[in-house]
Amino acid sequence: MTDMEIKRQVESELSWDPQVKSAPAIGVSVKDGIVTLRGRVESVTERQAAESAVMRVRGVKGIVNQLEVRLRKSCERTDEDIARAAVDALAWMTEVPKDHVKVKVEDGTITLIGTVYWNYQKESAEHVVRSLTGIKRVVNLIEVRPTADEIFVKSNIEAAMKRNAELDAKRIEVETIGTKVILRGTVHSWAERKEAERVAWEAQGVTEVENQITVAEAA
């Protein structure tokens, strides 16, 4: 698939996704399968939705997301209001251990700091604050506390990949160094590459995933 074909497919997918309300204003450029998004969107959620839409397009090998969040006047809130809303939202979550995550807000940017036991807890905390009104950006500095040895982590990830219908586990190699996971191999799409990374992050005690998997379109 040529860069021009990928560009047309990406633009169509952005327009198709109802969460990407600013699709007509988003600039798309493609070089060697790397998609760059430019322009303005109205929320962090919309920015993430645009990125996810690009990832679904076959032939995409990478994404550079330069979309800027510009809030409407009706959505603007003070840092104090945002911080209070974020603390309240985290307090209601059962997925995140109580008092393990702290919030810092500056000029509409939320920074999450703390320690959890699983990566899904880290992602859940980010997800709940990302949906709050008035934020421009989320910086997730939450650390995952190591709790498992590398052999256990490696075998669990390999087993999970074999169970996953979206992955060809035979084409993916898993290496563990302490609590770091390195993925290698070749897959057929950017979405499959991201799915392999997601599976690796789900293993208990993983603190870093280095995704070296390459994307090669099927003939």
Describe the model.
- The chain folds into three domains: 3-70, Histidine-containing Protein, Chain: A (2-Layer Sandwich); 75-144, Histidine-containing Protein, Chain: A; 150-215, Histidine-containing Protein, Chain: A (2-Layer Sandwich).
- Helix content is 35%, strand content 28%.
- The protein is built from six helices and eleven strands.
- It has helices spanning 3-16, 44-55, 79-91, 119-130, 150-163, 190-201; strands at 27-31, 34-41, 62-69, 101-106, 109-116, 137-140, 143-144, 172-177, 180-187, 208-211, 214-215.
- The model has no long low-confidence stretch (mean pLDDT 88).
The major β-sheet equals:
4 strands, mixed
Q: Which class best fits the helix and strand makeup? A: alpha/beta
Radius of gyration: 19 Å
Query: Given the C-alpha coordinates, what overall shape results?
Result: flat
Q: Quote the distance from N terminus to C terminus.
A: 11 Å
- What is the top-level CATH class of the largest domain? Alpha Beta
Number of domains: 3
Short description:
The protein is α/β, with parallel strands linked by helices.
Tag the structure with descriptive keywords.
6 helices; alpha/beta; Histidine-containing Protein, Chain: A; 219 residues; four-stranded mixed sheet; 11 strands; 3 domains
Topology:
Blueprint lengths: L2 H14 L10 E5 L2 E8 L2 H12 L6 E8 L9 H13 L9 E6 L2 E8 L2 H12 L6 E4 L2 E2 L5 H14 L8 E6 L2 E8 L2 H12 L6 E4 L2 E2 L4
Parallel strand pairs: 2-3, 5-6, 5-7, 9-10, 9-11
Antiparallel strand pairs: 1-2, 4-5, 8-9
